[in-house]
Amino acid sequence: MGSLTGIDHLVLTVADVAASAAFYERLGLRHETFGEGRHAVVGPGFKLNLHPAAGDPIEPRAARPTPGSADVCLVHDGPLAEIVALLDDVGVPVELGPVRRTGARGPMTSVYVRDPDRNLVELCSYEG
């Protein structure tokens, strides 16, 4: 029997799909439209589906889809200093960090930011 091996995608309920897509594009993810007008931001091996809070026809969905209720950690494959510099360049304020944390792969260093819906977005590096 096989086993669970990872997370394919997460769904973020958002107030404004375009604003959320633009935010995550500034972090280096790629905005894609798929299916019948659905939206996602995509990184290597994962995606964040962006579901509009109002008038969302997508079923099934979370029991209480609410903008700003997510807390997600995205992994950077280089030093954290690169992420900090990128955030500064694109005008995204760091709420906390750099701080040491423990992730799925072990010790890591993270910074925390907020997306347009006030979701907590942790950006981490296992390189320090």
TrEMBL record:
Phylogenetic classification of the source organism: Bacteria, Bacillati, Actinomycetota, Actinomycetes, Micrococcales
Enzyme Commission identifier(s): 4.4.1.5
InterPro entries: Glyas_Bleomycin-R_OHBP_Dase, Glyas_Fos-R_dOase_dom, GlyoxalaseI/FosfomycinResist, VOC_core
Domain of life of the source: Bacteria
A single GO molecular function term of this UniProt record: lactoylglutathione lyase activity
The protein, known as: Lactoylglutathione lyase
One Pfam family linked to the record: Glyoxalase
Stretches assigned to the VOC domain: 6-126
SUPFAM superfamilies reported in the protein's UniProt record: Glyoxalase/Bleomycin resistance protein/Dihydroxybiphenyl dioxygenase
Biological source species: Luteimicrobium xylanilyticum
Gene3D superfamilies named among the record's database cross-references: 2,3-Dihydroxybiphenyl 1,2-Dioxygenase, domain 1
Keywords, comma-separated and alphabetical: Lyase
